[in-house]
Amino acid sequence: QVQLVESGGGLVQPGGSLRLSCAASGRIASIYAMGWYRQAPGKQRELVAGITGGGSTNYADSVKGRFTISRDNAKNTVYLQMNSLKPEDTAVYYCNADLKVRFGVRDDYWGQGTQVTVSS
To answer: Which of 47, 41, 79 is nearest to 60 (CA)?
Structure first.
């Protein structure tokens, strides 16, 4: 019924930049908060950045000043601009959306994940 499709991951050198995108599609009535999480090998999944329907944002301390989350409500898409990337940013990045489907309930949905590797 609902799909979140991420794109934009890849291999980048330290200090480089990447832009992740996540498009939500399907029988969507409303999208509330959207966000990006990441999970490195052997670690728990953690929140990287979140954005509400009204555009308020929050960030993990480790990415403040380097990452920027934004959304295009007309396209049901959330973005994560990642600058000054560090090796410790290496992880699988997952998109998350808190949304309500048509004639259905409100729930959390996840993308399939996209790999980001920061290495020289």
So the answer is: 47
**CA pair distance 14, 85, nearest whole angstrom:** 5
117: pLDDT strictly greater than 90:
yes
Does 1 have pLDDT greater than 90?
no
Pair 57, 47: CB distance under 8 Å? no
According to DSSP, residue 77 is labeled E
Provide φ and ψ at 89, rounded to 5°: -85, -5
Buried-state track 57-66, b at ≥16 Cβ within 10 A, e below 16: eebeeebeee
Reading the block at residue 64, the tokens are: 């403040």
